[in-house]
From TrEMBL:
GO biological process assignments: tRNA queuosine(34) biosynthetic process
This protein's encoding gene: queA
Keywords (A to Z) from UniProt: Cytoplasm, Glycosyltransferase, Isomerase, Queuosine biosynthesis, S-adenosyl-L-methionine, Transferase
Reactions catalysed: 7-aminomethyl-7-carbaguanosine(34) in tRNA + S-adenosyl-L-methionine = epoxyqueuosine(34) in tRNA + adenine + L-methionine + 2 H(+)
One GO cellular component term noted in the UniProt record for this chain: cytoplasm
Chief subcellular location: cytoplasm
Entry annotated with the keyword S-adenosyl-L-methionine: yes
Enzyme class (EC, first level): transferase
Name of the molecule in the record: S-adenosylmethionine:tRNA ribosyltransferase-isomerase
Length: 340
């Protein structure tokens, strides 16, 4: 199939620029894969679809405040650095703006007074920067900015520090939020447990590749990016026992889906830290996930392909058209979908 088959028209005013005023109040579209029905609900209705025959799986990765600004020591120009990963003590791999000017040896003064200089060029806009102090997550929490997606056309504000994180975020390392989980409040989590359902957590650190466009005409020619994930023995045991008992595995977000599907071997989940470049596309047979909770995704994206593979392209096309016609909000801060 072609990636152009996964396009749709979306008015720009339906691209959510801010989260709902109150977490847990977004629109919820519920679609049934068996009969093709579509219901319009609210996030407060989510637990109506949960019972003691369900395990809900969340991604507990936490977004790193990764956008850090600096001035060049020679000219005073402003440069933006995206902190990708710490390579060794006081050194980070970064993406950098105005890349042609950022050459080996150039030095900068960062927010908070830290000093740094480029020691190596990795690729067109990737560099290694060596700092005069330890740039850790405490420093980034104080001086860096939340990396909002490119389709949110504004700078981050104080509210994003909370709203672009899940209420259960724990393991720092994502470049973007596992956005389906942004809809869940502690109250909703408590109600899930009250219904007798189990909750399990996995960790997949969302990489910048999640925003990378598919540049090939055909899906089979696309090289999927790698992302690191972790599954604990506790979570694996909960999910394995549920599958043996015939319970439903409801994965919250495409990151949870890819984590589970990448790890299922001979009726068991692989434990520990691994990486995946699994591209779920037509022809894929799901081994673990029975139900999916997700946001509304960007046109011609691997995420939309994944959801369309799970629910059939015909049904997702119908659901997306109905969402547009019903003034749903789309993408990271937008509304949600539950696929039964």
């Amino acid at each position: 199939m072609k990636i152009s088959d996964y396009s749709f028209d979306l008015p720009k005013e339906q691209i959510a620029q801010y989260p709902p005023e109150e977490r847990g109040t977004a629109n919820l579209m519920v679609i049934d894969r068996l009969d093709g029905s579509i219901e319009h609900k609210n996030m407060q209705n989510f637990t109506d679809y949960i019972d003691d025959n369900t395990v809900v799986v969340f991604n507990n990765s936490r977004v790193r405040k990764a956008r850090l600004f600096a001035t060049t020591d020679d000219s005073g120009g402003k440069v933006e650095f995206f902190m990708l990963s710490k390579t060794e003590k006081n050194q980070w791999e970064v993406m950098v703006s105005k890349a042609k000017k950022q050459v080996v040896g150039r030095s900068y003064t960062f927010e908070g007074g830290a000093k740094g200089r480029i020691t190596r060029i990795i690729s067109t806009n990737h560099r290694i920067v060596e700092f005069d102090t330890d740039i850790n997550d405490d420093y980034l929490d104080q001086y860096a900015h939340i990396p909002l997606p490119p389709y949110i056309k504004r700078g981050d504000d104080n509210a994003d520090s909370e709203r672009y994180q899940t209420v259960f975020s724990k393991e720092i390392g994502s470049c973007a939020a596992p956005t389906a989980s942004l809809h869940f409040t502690q109250d909703i989590l408590d109600k899930i447990k009250e219904k007798g359902a189990d909750i399990a957590f996995v960790t997949l650190h969302v990489g910048l590749g999640t925003f990378a466009p598919v540049r090939t005409e055909y899906l089979d020619d696309h090289d999927m990016h790698y992302e690191d994930f972790y599954i604990s023995d506790e979570s694996a045991t909960i999910i394995e026992n549920a599958k043996k008992a015939g319970k439903k595995i409801l994965a919250v977000g495409t990151t949870s889906v890819r984590t589970l599907e990448s790890s299922w071997v001979d009726g068991k989940l692989l434990r520990g830290t691994r990486s995946t470049n699994l591209f779920i596309k037509p022809g894929y047979e799901f081994k673990v996930v029975d139900r999916m909770f997700t946001n509304f995704h960007t046109p011609e994206s691997t995420l939309l392909v994944l959801v369309s593979t799970f629910a059939t392209k015909t049904l997702i096309d119908k659901a997306y058209k109905e969402a547009v016609d019903s003034d749903y909000m789309f993408f990271s801060y937008g509304d949600a979908m539950l696929i039964m």
